[in-house]
Design brief:
globular, three-stranded antiparallel β-sheet, alpha/beta, 9 helices, binds adenosine monophosphate, five-stranded parallel β-sheet, Rossmann fold, 8 strands
């Protein structure tokens, strides 16, 4: 099964995509995570991507497409995968279609959250080096310094700073949201899920939609 999770930054795509991928036994492929890793390793790609990501802009299509096509060619992706954060532009969606044919996907899950809630979530979001995600209003946010799951220090992603969040939302609206119409035109199955509420219930809604 080739699935895409689509939604604005802060919609909870990453958390949900990871859980659903675990349930379905297919890899969770998150281009944002891959790029952050490239930045922290200081690779050529990372050096090119770093400043762009800090501004909340998109890394050029050719770089991201090459990275993604390479990743989906790995053995673990033969039976499918969940894409999180790719495609983000029509050109990226077309590259996926060229690679897999027939729209490129079996279904898209669109996680719907309004902008006010997005800003609240992102400005309070903190992460640890192993990718565990917190919110400052979360009861687990005890000392605010170390991850309660792995002990790694907790920090705020630079692209989560308030000034950058606004840009990321604009980029989403202008370049990524048109993918909903793109996949609608392709006849790709779309499941629109309300992304506000208890994370377990949201996972259950997604699993129910995918089983239909
Ligand atoms: P994310 O973790 O998905 O919010 O991605 C973080 C940042 O990585 C984005 O704001 C972009 O700068 C970059 N990025 C991730 N995926 C893509 C993509 N498919 N195309 C272009 N840039 C991307």
């Amino acid at each position: 099964m080739r699935l895409l999770f689509l939604g604005p930054p802060g919609a909870g795509k990453g958390t949900q995509a990871k859980r659903v991928a675990g349930n379905l036994g297919i890899p969770h492929i998150a281009t944002g995570d891959m790029l952050r890793q490239a930045v922290s390793e200081g690779t050529d790609l990372g050096l090119k991507a770093r400043a762009i990501m800090e501004r909340g802009d998109l890394v050029p299509d050719d770089l991201v497409i090459a990275m993604l096509l390479d990743r989906v060619a790995h053995d673990d992706a033969t039976d499918g995968f969940i894409l999180d954060g790719f495609p983000r532009t029509i050109a990226q969606a077309e590259a996926l279609e060229d690679r897999f044919g027939d729209g490129g996907l079996d279904a898209a899950v669109v996680i719907d959250v309004d902008s006010e809630e997005i800003v609240r979530r992102i400005s309070g979001r903190r992460v640890c080096g192993n990718g565990h995600v917190f919110h400052v209003d979360d009861p687990r946010w005890v000392d605010g310094e170390k991850c309660d799951q792995c002990g790694e220090p907790i920090y705020q992603r630079e692209d989560d700073y308030a000034s950058t969040v606004r840009n990321r939302l604009n980029v989403y609206r202008d370049l990524t949201e048109p993918l909903i119409a793109f996949y609608g035109d392709q006849g790709t199955t779309m499941h629109v899920i309300d992304g506000v509420g208890d994370p377990d219930s949201i996972t259950e809604s997604i699993m129910t939609a995918l089983r239909q």
